[in-house]
Design goal:
This protein has 149 residues and is an all-alpha fold. It has helices at residues 2-15, 18-38, 48-71, 75-88, 98-112, 120-130, 137-148. Helix 2 (18-38) crosses helix 3 (48-71) and helix 5 crosses helix 7.
């Protein structure tokens, strides 16, 4: 993942893509902060799963910003956020659709034999382990709660 970020930055610099350069630099800065925070633990640096979670958080933050910019009648800033999302999503695996998320939730529930809301934590842990970076866990949580409730 780190190599992909470095290669993408080099390509963006060659292409003189200012938006890509600044976005990738933002990602790398956030990754450095994550690495520093992790150094207190046993690991030296963030693993791919942690990087994927960080990238998903960055996308979610930008979606929130888009909503605020549109509410404040700032379409140019909203478009800038959309452009950044597009660049960040290059580093994320393909996202599962709603029906795929439902199927994954149903499969985990059936596999572990979950039969009530007390199993919610175990269901979500299994989903995070199997589908890191591939789904919106907010949607998955709502589906799991509906199925278990």
């Amino acid at each position: 993942m780190r190599d992909a970020l470095n290669d993408a930055l080099k390509e963006a610099m060659k292409a003189q893509d200012k938006c890509a350069i600044s976005t990738i630099r933002l990602i790398r800065a956030a990754l450095k902060e994550k690495d520093i925070a992790i150094r207190g633990n046993d690991a030296e640096e963030a693993g791919d799963a942690e990087i994927l979670a960080m990238l998903q958080t960055m996308v979610k933050q930008r979606h929130d910003s888009i909503a605020m910019y549109e509410k404040g009648n700032r379409p140019e800033l909203a478009q800038q956020e959309r452009d950044e999302i597009e660049i960040i999503e290059r580093f994320l695996p393909r996202q599962l659709g709603d029906t795929e998320i439902e199927a994954a939730v149903d499969a985990v529930i059936a596999e572990i034999g979950a039969d009530g809301l007390k199993w919610m934590g175990k269901v979500m842990a299994a989903l995070r382990e199997r589908h890191a970076g591939q789904m919106d866990f907010g949607k998955a949580g709502a589906i799991a709660k509906k199925r278990l409730g």
